Amino acid sequence: MGLVQASVAPVAPAAATPVDFRGVQPSEQARHAAVAAFDRRDAGGRPVAVVDKKNARIYVFGADGRLRGTTPVLLGLTPGDRSAPGVGQLAGGYIPADMQTTPAGRFESEPGRNLKGESIVWLDYDAALAIHRLRPAHPAQRRPQRLASATADDNRISQGCVIVPGHFFDEVVAPTLGRQRGVVYILPEAAPPDGALQVAGKR
Question: How does pLDDT run across 54-74, given as a tens digit for each residue?
């Protein structure tokens, strides 16, 4: 009996997920990062967040590509796109100012809790990098006022984490990134013109 060759229809690639900013006008770099994340299916069907460091703002998307919310954020005191070596071991204590950076890159996020039992979203556990709610701090730091100001120039005050208002964490971050794994893109200080997804390799 001769070999029977079955014909197999080619499998069409999965359609890209369109991105819906719901009328919000982001920076060109933030838009490019979000579109590329879904268009290239880099997030693998997971929710996405884009942190635009230059404008001190986060955009959170569901796995369907629809914007769930955006808000100003607080970032690391010192500009820089890399985590200082050993910074995670200093978490909870004194961290020198030059080590208080918010690194750029693509991060596989994971819901979790800090040592105080607070809900956070881990980005890099070894570097103690996370997205978390605004916490009480020394009044001289004026963290609530920095978040509420009209400029991004004064939003550098954290030890490196991405800090969002409490209501935004509860209403947007927790139901989107706080219940499942996601992908978070932190754009570099000076994003390349050909796409923010090239800021770093997968972490």
Answer: 999 999 999 999 999 999 999
Evaluate whether residue 18 is within a structural domain: no
Q: Answer yes or no: are the C-beta atoms of 203 and 124 closer than 8 Å.
A: yes
Query: In the chain, how many domains are there?
Result: 1
What is the CA angle 123-53-198, rounded to 5?
70
CATH number of the domain to which 50 belongs:
2.40.440.10
Range of the domain at 110: 28-190
Domain membership flag for residue 104 = yes
> 140: Cβ–Cβ under 8 A, 6 or more apart, which residues?
none
In a domain, 198, yes or no: no
Do the Cβ atoms of 76 and 100 come closer than 8 Å? yes
- Categorize the per-residue pLDDT at 189 as very low, low, confident or very high, splitting at 50, 70 and 90: confident
